[in-house]
Specification:
73 residues; 4 strands; 34% strand; elongated; binds zinc ion
Length: 73
């Protein structure tokens, strides 16, 4: 069984690089990977993961809701 590629994937090419790290106040977030939820969960949910290049704080970003979330290690 193949995984379908979301047709709205072009939206993810607009990287929200202007986000500022809440810890060190730098805008040096590095894109790490992109995760798409399995189709069996319903509407695919895209989550992007970023690391701060200055303090290694991790963030996740949801393009659908334009929401940033800080991840605790
Ligand atoms: Zn930082």
């Amino acid at each position: 069984m193949e995984f379908a590629v979301p047709q709205q994937s072009f939206r993810s090419h607009v990287a929200p690089s202007a986000h500022r790290c809440r810890v060190c106040r730098e805008t040096a977030l590095i894109f790490q990977r992109r995760h798409v939820s399995p189709e069996r969960w319903g509407e695919p949910v895209v989550t992007e993961f970023y690391d701060c290049d200055c303090c290694d704080t991790r963030y996740s970003y949801s393009p659908a809701s334009a929401t940033w979330r800080r991840l605790t290690n």
